[in-house]
Specification:
Length: 567
């Protein structure tokens, strides 16, 4: 009986084992079936939706993640490249363990030695709190090696695709920058964002109209002018008079697109395209040109009363006595407000207003970048006083870019064209619109040249380059009227005046004057010298060589200039 009982127990055990085995097989089968079902559902979902995996060609895989931007000569201005980042991973040592081998303050101090601009206290606090996150972006290979030598596993160095600006802060307001989300901001990075990210176009670099050599020289001279005159800011532009292409555009102080921080954010405002100013006497040649074009001025020898102008309770006067009367040439040479106002009054508000509209002074400047300021425009009906003050650059506020485009029309034969930051192929210049007669433009080339030879523009008269232009020193408006201590000093120029090719605008915002500038705050002493130093630097780069044997023929108007007649 004992043997039989043992056999029964053995059979029972075997049956139980077999049953367990069968259930295990069954559960495994169910598991595989469940996984297969999920896979089938996933396949079905991808097949029915537009989120499926997309085939990527080898060519596309080799493209940079964002297209390159170059200057007009192919010099890189912005490009994508693989770079290291510094990331703090508090779990690198495993759960429950201390994230760092050494004290947080000690590790932060070692990083500070590698990155002098690092916020040591903030990083030490991040380590002590165990907060994961970036410590730094854009880490150079040699810096990455030094970080590895610290020997902390929690300091990880992931590879990332980064946007790099090889020229540093040069042209920052033109280019803008790429934010952490991979999208362009502020400048041409924003304008060209879709093009630079599109796989079908990002393989071909985008050439801008900028010439880095001219851009560098413009920024250098503006920066020097700021320091010599203790100005709070500066702006400048170099413009091709026949195509509207911008060869250089600078707003100072500038920011560094390679390092966007709080200070950089505060410096992104563009003084050339976004800030509007009353640009003062630089408008006087426009008024004279409009009067010539309308036949209001037929004789450049005509004498105008130069005494103060009384309009209601307001008086328009000059900064100093310029004599009892002036002709239009002397008006520009000596920069008379009173005679400019009388010429504008004779021209009338309708005709002067029409000229300003034709020059685009009533709308945002024409250029690709998004930061474009709207002018302070006097409106539809100009009272007599407003018309007279517009005649010498007050009661209307525009950007320096507006002024550059207007001066291009003054000297290029009378055609206004929109400014552009895109490099144009030969023959692709826009047709533009006629503002002045060709004969008027020819006469203005003579008059602008006389200002640089005999008038307030003498300090811009670079030998051999036949510079012509006009100064403008305007008080900035404030809460209680114009501020005598806050000036905007501008020199608007073109060269060479016998065959104008480029307009140059140099502006200083609130120059205070220093010993180096003899404490002079007017444009004749601070903005004009910037142009006088800049033109010889950039002329040869753009195919304009000095030539003392050529100049604008002013023989027919020289007898009307007392300074010239006495030579």
């Amino acid at each position: 009986m004992a043997v039989a009982s043992g056999r029964v127990q053995l059979v029972t055990v075997r049956q139980r084992s077999l049953t367990v085995a069968r259930w295990r097989v069954l559960w495994i089968a169910f598991g595989f079936a469940f996984i297969a079902l999920i896979a089938l559902l996933r396949i079905a979902y991808l097949g029915m939706s537009d989120h499926g995996l997309r085939a990527t060609s080898l060519e596309e895989a080799l493209l940079p993640p964002r297209g390159e931007i170059t200057d007009r000569n192919g010099i890189p201005l912005a490009r994508a490249f693989p770079a290291y980042a510094l990331w703090f991973n508090p779990e690198a040592m495993g759960e429950g363990g201390a994230p760092l081998v050494h004290a947080p303050q000690e590790v932060a101090a070692k990083l500070k030695a590698i990155f002098p601009d690092l916020d040591e206290k903030r990083v030490a606090a991040q380590f002590a709190a165990g907060r994961q996150g970036y410590i730094r972006r854009r880490v150079l290979p040699e810096e990455a090696n030094l970080v590895q030598d610290i020997g902390e596993l929690a300091l990880e160095m992931p590879m990332e695709n980064d946007r790099h600006y090889p020229q540093g802060s040069m042209g920052a307001h033109i280019l803008g920058y790429v934010a952490a989300d991979g999208r362009g901001r502020v400048g041409m990075e924003q304008v060209l964002d879709e093009h630079l990210r599109d796989p079908s176009t990002r393989g071909t670099p985008v050439a801008l109209s900028i010439d880095v050599r001219v851009q560098g020289a413009l920024e250098d001279e503006l920066r020097r002018g700021m320091k010599l005159n203790d100005a709070q800011g500066a702006a400048g532009i170099v413009l091709d008079v026949d195509t509207g292409e911008v060869l250089a555009l600078a707003s100072l102080p500038e920011f560094d697109p390679n390092k966007i921080d709080a200070r950089g954010q505060s410096l992104m405002f563009n003084r050339v395209t976004n800030q509007v100013y009353e640009l003062g006497s630089t408008f006087k040649p426009i008024t004279v040109a409009a009067a010539l074009d309308a036949g209001v001025i037929r004789d450049l020898g005509k004498r105008y009363d130069a005494s103060p102008v009384q309009v209601g309770r307001f008086t328009i006067k000059d900064s100093h006595d310029l004599g009892s009367s002036l002709n239009p040439i002397e008006t520009l040479i000596h920069s008379s407000n009173t005679v400019s106002a009388r010429i504008a009054d004779e021209l009338g508000p309708e005709r002067l207003r029409r000229t300003m509209i034709d020059l685009g002074m009533n709308e945002r400047p024409y250029i690709e970048i998004p930061a474009r300021g709207f002018p302070l425009w006097p409106g539809k009906k100009w009272p007599r006083l407003t018309n007279m003050t517009v005649g010498f650059g007050h009661s209307i506020a525009v950007t320096p870019l507006h002024l550059a485009s207007a001066y291009a029309a003054l000297v290029n034969g009378g055609i206004w064209r929109p400014a552009t930051l895109q490099k144009l192929a030969p023959g692709d210049a826009p047709k533009g619109r006629r503002v002045f007669k060709a004969s008027t433009s020819s006469r203005m080339r003579q008059l602008l040249r006389t200002i640089a030879v005999y008038g307030t523009g003498r300090n811009a008269n670079a030998p051999g380059y036949r510079v012509g232009g006009k100064t403008g020193s305007a008080e900035k408006p404030g809460a209680h009227g114009y501020q005598k201590s806050a000036l905007v000093s501008t020199f608007a120029a073109a060269f060479p005046m016998d065959r104008p090719r480029y307009v140059v605008i140099a502006m200083l915002d609130e120059p205070r004057g220093t010993i180096a500038s003899s404490f002079q705050r007017t444009a004749a002493w601070n903005a004009a010298p910037i142009v006088g130093r800049l033109v010889p630097r950039i002329g040869p780069l753009m195919g304009v060589r000095p030539d003392d044997t050529r100049d604008v023929d002013i023989s027919d108007i020289r007898p009307l200039i007392p300074e010239a007649a006495s030579e």
